[in-house]
Structure formats: structure tokens, C-alpha cells
């Protein structure tokens, strides 16, 4: 009998210990949730204007430059290397002179032609790199030209269909159209 009572007492004690551990875990979770956010997150996010785009100041230079439309990872890497800035430098740490240097480089980058986004322009035959609104405008003009000359790509743009040869049976369906595979009627 004494053994059974001790086992019961031990079970009660172990149950009490597990209950206490669970309460401690809940209390820790509540403390973590109730803690104020670290100072880094509490500081206001500074935005730096580069080439007409707002770039978060908490980003480093390498990733921050990719927020500018027309600047890929390779262009960002080239800008960091050519201008001599470390990739890990924060955007918020840049001076006005450094920002101007970056903007000048992005407008007229001194890089290989294969990295540029406008190779052998139809109008001028030059290879250039456009960013921001200039890039949007050139792209829009290209699409208008394709529609005007009624090329295959222009026709696909006009019809609102995929241009680059994707299949359309299951995707690219417009909202509101009830399209699908018809079942054969049962007889």
C-alpha cells in the first residue's frame, strides 16, 4: 500500500511540475509579446530619394539600388564596384554628393553593353540604359509600334493574350468568362 501511495504522490508531483512548466512557458510568451520592439525597429524609417524612387534607408546599397526601376542586381553590383562604395553600406549613410554620383552613374552607366536594357535601339541604333519613367515610356512606345505594324506580338498585345508563346488552355483566363472543357453529353 505504501508503494501505491508513493507512486500516486510521485504522479501528482510530476503533474504539478509539468503544469508549472506550462505556466512558465505561457508567462515567457506573454513577456516576449509585451516587450517593446527593439530600438532599431522603433526608429522611424528614413527614405532616401534616388533617381526619383524612395529607397528605405535601412537597406544596404547593393539591395537598395534594385528598388529603382531599371536597375537590376548586376547593375547595382556594377555601380558599387565602379563608384568604389562598399555593398554593405546603408542607404541612410550616403551623403548628398554620393547620391548624386550614383544618379549620374545610373543615367549614363560605364558598363558593358550586354548589361544595358536598350541594345541597338531601332530609332538611333545606339545601346543605352534607361531607368524609371524613361524605361516605361520606351516600353510603351515599343508596344504601340508593334500594334501599329500588326506584328504577331502586337496582335497578341491587342487581344490581351500572352505574347511569349505560353499555353492558354488553363491560364490567362479573364474574370467573368465561363470557359472550360465541355463534357460530352450522356445518352
Indicate the CATH architecture of the domain at 47-110: Orthogonal Bundle
Task: Characterize the biggest β-sheet.
Answer: 2 strands, antiparallel
Q: Regarding CATH, which class of the domain at 47-110?
A: Mainly Alpha
Please identify the structural class as seen in this structure: mainly alpha
Shape: flat
How big a fraction of the residues is strand?
Answer: under 5%
Output mean pLDDT: 82
- How many β-strand stretches? 2
Residue runs with pLDDT of under 50 for 5 or more positions: none
Which sequence of strands runs across the widest sheet? Answer: 1-2
Order of helices and strands: HHEEHHHHH
Quick rundown:
The protein is mainly α. The protein has helices at 2-34, 39-42, 61-64, 73-83, 96-107, 133-148, 152-159, and strands at 47-50, 53-56.
Describe the structure.
It is a single chain. The protein has 187 residues and is mostly helical. Helix 6 (133-148) packs across helix 7. The relative contact order is 0.07. The chain has a two-stranded antiparallel ribbon. The chain has helices spanning 2-34, 39-42, 61-64, 73-83, 96-107, 133-148, 152-159, and strands spanning 47-50, 53-56. 47% of the residues lie in helices and 4% in strands. Among the domains are: 47-110, Helicase, Ruva Protein, domain 3 (Orthogonal Bundle), CATH 1.10.8.50; 115-159, no CATH class. It is built from seven helices and two strands, in the order ααββααααα. The model has no long low-confidence stretch (mean pLDDT 82). The protein starts with a helix and ends in a 28-residue tail after the last helix.
Amino acid at each position: 500500500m505504501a508503494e501505491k501511495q508513493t507512486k500516486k504522490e510521485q504522479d501528482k508531483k510530476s503533474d504539478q511540475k509539468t503544469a508549472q512548466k506550462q505556466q512558465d512557458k505561457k508567462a515567457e510568451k506573454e513577456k516576449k509579446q509585451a516587450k517593446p520592439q527593439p530600438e532599431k525597429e522603433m526608429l522611424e524609417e528614413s527614405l532616401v530619394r534616388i533617381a526619383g524612387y524612395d529607397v528605405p534607408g535601412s537597406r544596404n546599397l547593393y539591395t537598395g539600388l534594385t528598388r529603382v526601376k531599371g536597375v537590376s542586381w548586376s547593375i547595382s553590383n556594377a555601380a558599387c564596384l565602379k563608384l568604389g562604395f562598399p555593398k554593405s553600406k546603408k542607404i541612410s549613410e550616403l551623403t548628398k554628393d554620393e547620391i548624386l554620383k550614383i544618379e549620374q552613374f545610373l543615367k549614363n552607366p560605364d558598363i558593358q553593353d550586354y548589361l544595358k536594357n536598350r541594345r541597338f535601339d531601332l530609332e538611333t541604333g545606339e545601346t543605352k540604359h534607361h531607368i524609371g519613367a524613361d524605361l516605361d515610356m520606351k516600353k510603351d512606345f515599343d508596344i504601340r509600334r508593334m500594334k501599329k505594324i500588326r506584328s504577331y506580338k502586337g496582335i497578341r498585345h491587342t487581344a490581351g493574350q500572352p505574347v511569349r508563346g505560353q499555353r492558354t488552355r488553363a491560364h490567362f483566363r479573364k474574370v467573368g468568362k465561363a470557359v472550360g472543357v465541355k463534357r460530352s453529353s450522356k445518352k
